[in-house]
Specification:
By secondary structure, this protein is mainly β. It contains nine helices and 41 strands. A nine-stranded antiparallel sheet has the order 20-21-23-24-25-32-31-28-27, with no helix packed on it. A hairpin with an 8-residue loop joins strand 31 and strand 32 (648-656). Helix 5 runs antiparallel to helix 6. The longest helix has 10 residues, at 42-51. The protein starts with 24 loop residues before the first helix and ends in an 8-residue tail after the last strand.
């Protein structure tokens, strides 16, 4: 090039004299192909499209020749819950930065998004759903090159091989899964409390794990401190029920004076304290191992002796007045806690089930109550199974406390005491009315007093499951009354749901808001697959003072005597209503009906459409055959309009429990085979909607408490991906037990491979209680009363000692919580 020189006046033409506004060539390129525009292949591909490749090697003062070419790939089709790997590729110049972002589809969390290889867990979906992801690589000057890839997610499928039936003394799970024993009967939960000797000499169960682990919930904890962190899957509080005891293993040589004479106070207090609820802090290490923190300030035992407060319409009612609570506003403890409820405002509901059996009621008490004008109480106590002439479970009322002023044993005697005030304030004749409730506990505040929520009625509460919470809609709470021929209930709060309440710091006050005022309903199921929720409201439908069987005084009287009120309304008798669970995706409610030995073809408890089987179940081990609805079933319903506020619904039966070898025409109606046959469904739970097991087509877990099929297998847990109400058809079922009758029922689509056995427990156990971390990668399960048929001199199970391998010397069995994880870190079940 010749330089321009002002001295000689020479000009070689290399000056800009075009002052027009016409666009420059680079501006044309930029306007049509902006550096921010997305086109697979990056800048090099874009320029080639326009210029036929002639600029691919071009270079200007901005270095645009140093281009980065990219590509992107991921699994084309995957099922929900599986891990997907996205791989980005670059060529040409070295990229200054790379990263993945999501363009469309249900939002997922990308791990390692700022690298070439990112991963995510496929979300739960109800139908094939495309997800688009974008890989971007930037050149040295910040110019982006972009490529997209699409991953199509299909609905979830179960991802394990069914576990075979087993009579072994071990918890069996599928290949690729691991079992860790976390929290056992007697484990200490306070600093300074010694390890459990497990020989019957241990004491202080107010600071040890109770017995018969049952319903359970996990609550996420912040990394530090004691505040809720709903998304935490590494630190949390595990809250669980201790339903009952295996008394033979709690004492050195079994219990003394169980059937006659006074019980030793030391034995009785140990047995009492082994009931109730545990709150323990648990955490997962960086290596993935779970443990509980013995010294946590949040650890707590709630026992039958823990102070309680009554809330709701029955608070202060005359029937709650006792020697310990003369004004009827306070109570003492909770017992026989079976299933549970996990509230969205981070509290725990524990439910009092077979509480009635613990009370002594002497012969002559009926006449004594009649003489002091309390005749109605006789009707009530009889309806709840507390007849006169009974000694009470474990005979605690006969023990004499070391402290003469203590009433910890006297409160279990419900007999009217002579010479005391007739209103019940001088004895414990009203104590049975203080039990049978749903109790709310704040696990994050050890100093808080649990509250008994009387608006939810009094019965053998198996559990209390909240339905879907939708802003502006009044939430519903579903409950079974676990006894033969009892009913299904629903409580609808008077207060519409507000999402802000999930983050409140006064959690029990939020419970006041939703659980103390509302309408309690009982279910009536019709033969045509329809149903109604009948309101248990004083002054309506015969619930008045004019009722001849039981004259109701007010709404509190209706709630105290929920069973009597439901009788009046003509509710449908069910085959022992146990756990309820709500599908988080559809809102459909499932209910386990565990069995019913009193169901017959005709008569008072005749078969009907929702309870259509009465048969004889053979035993192959020489035991007497069972009769009635021996193996139980799982029923489900869908609320009208899919709203929790509905007063009508439709129903069908999801699956019938049965051995696979039983009559397929009238017994094994769901076509079960060796991979999924079961008996006596009990525990029931859906995966959380915070992970793929509770989204789209959620996973449902069924646990068994069986005495009918234990000649073939120990109790078990199954995983299912159920369909929806109405996905099957009608079926005629003939029963010949106690007469002959044929009824038409509604049965869901045969589950087939969408139901399979996931776990089999040790000898003589019940599988009950289940919850998971929010990420769905750790599932907590309770193993209740292994070896319950044995004794200190004839131990019938050594679990959990046997979980680590065979034992040479028998060890007393212990109820315990286990944690199930996958060796590859994946979601449980999928």
């Amino acid at each position: 090039m010749t330089d321009f020189s002002t001295a000689c006046g020479y000009d070689d033409g290399d000056i800009d004299t075009n002052l027009s506004a016409n666009p420059h060539m680079n501006e044309l390129i930029a306007s049509r192909y902006s550096r921010r525009q997305t086109l697979r292949g990056g800048l090099s591909a874009m320029t080639a499209a326009v210029f036929g490749g002639m600029l691919l090697t071009g270079c200007d003062d901005e270095g645009q020749g140093d281009t980065v070419t990219v590509g992107a790939s991921g699994t084309g089709t995957v099922t929900a819950g599986r891990t997907v790997t996205l791989t980005g590729t670059t060529s040409g110049a070295t990229a200054s930065s790379v990263g993945w972002t999501q363009v469309s589809g249900p939002t997922v969390t990308l791990a390692n998004a700022a690298t070439q290889t990112a991963t995510f867990t496929a979300p739960g979906v109800a139908a094939a759903t495309p997800l688009v992801f974008r890989f971007t690589a930037n050149s040295a000057d910040g110019t982006p090159s972009i490529a997209d890839t699409t991953v199509t997610v299909q609905p979830a499928v179960l991802g394990f091989t069914a576990v075979p039936k087993s009579l072994a003394d071990v918890v069996s799970v599928p290949e690729g899964y691991a079992v860790t024993v976390l929290y056992r009967l007697g484990d200490p939960i306070a600093a300074g409390v010694g390890a459990y000797a497990n020989d019957g000499t241990d004491v202080n169960f107010a600071q040890r794990a109770g017995d018969h682990h049952d319903g359970m919930s996990y609550f996420g904890l912040a990394a530090t401190g004691n505040t809720p962190a709903p998304g935490s899957s590494t630190r949390g509080l595990l809250v669980m029920n201790h339903e009952n005891i295996t008394e033979s293993y709690l004492h050195p040589n079994g219990p003394t004076n169980l059937s006659s004479g006074p019980r030793p106070a030391a034995e009785a207090i140990k047995e009492i304290e082994a009931h109730g609820v545990s709150v323990i802090e648990v955490s997962r290490s960086a290596a993935g191992a779970w443990s509980y923190n013995q010294a946590s300030a949040l650890n707590r035992r709630i026992t039958p002796n823990t102070p309680m407060a009554f809330n709701g319409p029955v608070r202060g009612n005359a029937v709650l007045r006792t020697r310990q609570s003369p004004d009827g506003t306070a109570g003492r403890g909770t017992i026989n806690n079976c299933a549970n409820g996990t509230m969205p405002w981070h509290t725990y509901l524990t439910c009092e089930e077979n509480w009635a059996g613990y009370f002594r009621r002497a012969t002559g008490d009926v006449a004594a109550r009649t003489a002091i004008g309390r005749t109605k109480e006789n009707v009530s106590l009889a309806r709840y199974g507390i007849g006169e002439g009974r000694g009470g479970n474990y005979a605690w009322a006969t023990a004499t406390p070391a402290d003469a002023g203590s009433t910890v044993f006297a409160r279990w005697n419900a007999t009217v005491a002579a010479g005391t005030p007739t209103d019940g304030t001088g004895d414990f004749s009203h104590e049975p009315f203080q039990l049978g409730w749903v109790v709310e506990i704040d696990p994050f505040n050890p100093a808080s007093t649990p509250r008994k929520r009387t608006a939810l009625g009094r019965m053998n509460h198996e559990g209390c499951e909240i339905g879907r919470t939708i802003a502006g809609v009044r939430p519903a709470f579903y409950m079974g009354d676990d006894a033969q021929n009892e009913y299904l209930y629903k409580f609808v709060s008077a207060t519409p749901w507000s999402a802000a309440d999930a983050n409140a710091t006064d959690r029990l006050a939020i419970g006041d808001k939703y659980l103390d005022t509302g309408t309690l309903y009982v279910a009536k199921l019709n033969a045509d697959g329809s149903g109604q929720w009948l309101p248990l409201v004083f002054g309506q439908n015969g619930l008045t003072a004019a009722n001849t069987r039981y004259p109701f005084a007010d709404q509190a009287d209706v709630l105290v005597n929920t069973r009597l009120a439901a009788d009046v309304l003509g509710a449908t008798k069910m085959d022992r209503p146990e756990w309820t669970a709500v599908n988080p995706a559809t809102g459909e409610m499932y209910l386990t009906l565990t069995n019913n030995s009193s169901r017959t073809a005709t008569g008072t408890n005749a078969v009907d459409a929702p309870n259509p089987r009465a048969y004889t179940d053979p035993k192959i081990d020489g035991r007497s055959p069972g009769t009635g609805n021996v193996n139980g079933h799982v029923i489900r319903l869908r609320e009208a309009g899919d709203t929790s506020e509905a007063t009508s619904f439709t129903w069908d039966i999801y699956a019938f429990g049965a051995g696979s070898d039983l009559d397929p025409t009238n017994i094994n109606l769901s076509g079960l085979d060796a991979t999924n046959d079961f008996s006596s469904p009990d525990g029931l739970w859906f995966g959380l909607n915070s992970n793929a097991t509770g989204q789209g087509t959620p996973v449902m877990w069924i646990q068994t408490d069986d005495g009918a099929y234990t000649d073939v297998t120990n109790c078990m847990m199954l995983a299912a991906i159920p369909g929806t109400v109405g996905d099957g058809g009608t079926r005629s079922v003939t029963s010949t037990l106690g007469g002959s009758a044929t009824v038409t029922t509604r049965i869901g689509k045969a589950p087939g491979a969408t139901l399979r056995r996931f776990l089999v427990g040790p000898k003589q156990c019940e599988i009950t209680g289940i919850h998971s971390t929010p990420d769905g990668r750790s599932v907590f399960v309770n193993i209740q009363h292994p070896g319950e048929g044995g004794s200190p001199t004839a131990i019938s199970s050594s679990w959990p000692a046997t979980q680590g391998g065979a034992v040479t010397t028998p060890s007393r069995p212990r109820s315990a919580t286990i944690v199930i994880t996958r060796t590859d870190g994946g979601l449980i079940g999928l």
